[in-house]
Specification:
five-stranded mixed beta sheet; Nucleotidyltransferase, domain 5; single chain; 401 residues; 2 domains; alpha/beta
Length: 401
Amino acid sequence: MSRTKAGISGTLPERKPPHPAGMITRIIGLMSGTSHDGVDAALVEIPLNPPLINIKLIRHLHIPYSKQLRDEIRMAFNGNTELICRLNFKLGDIFAKAVLSLLKDTGFTSNDINAIASHGQTIHHIPPSGKKPGSTLQIGEASVIAEQTGILTISDFRTADMAAGGQGAPLVPMADYLLFKESGKVKAVLNIGGIANVTIVRDKMDDTIAFDIGPGNSLIDEAMLLISAGNKSYDKDGAFAKSGRPAPKLLNELLSHPYFKKKPPKSTGRETFGAGMIKDIFKTCKKYEHQVIVSTLTHLTAITVHDAIIKFQPDEIILTGGGVKNKFLMELINENFKKDSITLRKVSTYGIPLQAKEAFSFAVLGYLTLNNKPGNIPSVTGARHRVVLGKISLPNIPAII
């Protein structure tokens, strides 16, 4: 099997059809985000002949990671090559078990599912800079998933876009466009995970803009880990931040970070807004109480989110991601947009649970890959042209001689 500009060429081995021809495609999307707190699995049904607006979420499952696994992933962020190698297969096993749990919950079998679409766990992401090419690494071995589930698995969604000169992220804007486009309206789909990102959805796909805004939960989470000596991985409801007040000097220094001044297309990650930055902050800001630092970091996310989105004057902001559960952060974001008379709605009002949105989106991207359709938007990623995303790992099929 080979990959061409047109998509995937070659003949797949015969396998029992997952459903009668001409009905629906069932895909399980898998997502382990920059917050690395667990894996989300979403079983999605999509008509073979869309409109894609009829996409249906059948079931969503979230499996939290153990503290030990979260710690291992954090150590992998720092470049331990043996650990990364071992984690690749370990996460593949965990992702496969998430799929099998989802199948058990829904009563489906592997023969009922066309494909798994796994984003994997990002370990390092290097956007292209000038003439320097970028690179990216997501782990969670797809061959392990295909072997254990018996389902064709699509993975490594970012690399084809980067090979075409793109940032490789964000990729969910294609799904955002298909799901939320409404004639005559501008919608901002805001995802607050470890990194905050936004898609500006307009009538035409080529007018779609999306980019990573900057830190979502990443700096807050890293600060809580440091303060609690590893016992607390996040600020529940934002209560710790709310008990303090932001430090104006520190806030202004953080807001002056060059990333916020960059124009899209742009992407970032924990390499920039992660443990390294937090260590530097705590080293140079010893005079501040811990509540003050976490409050400052929470205000940083709220301010950068507002400043990044308001220039597009959206009619509506659709909220997704785990950061929406941070009550204090959402109070700050709501306050900032209230004066602009912009409506904010959780994605759950569209029938998609907050935690399921990204796994849901990768199921949609997997559908496009199966149908040899491009999944990137060059106006978003900066790629030279549209490309079919992902690599395919086939399940074991007994040879017939």
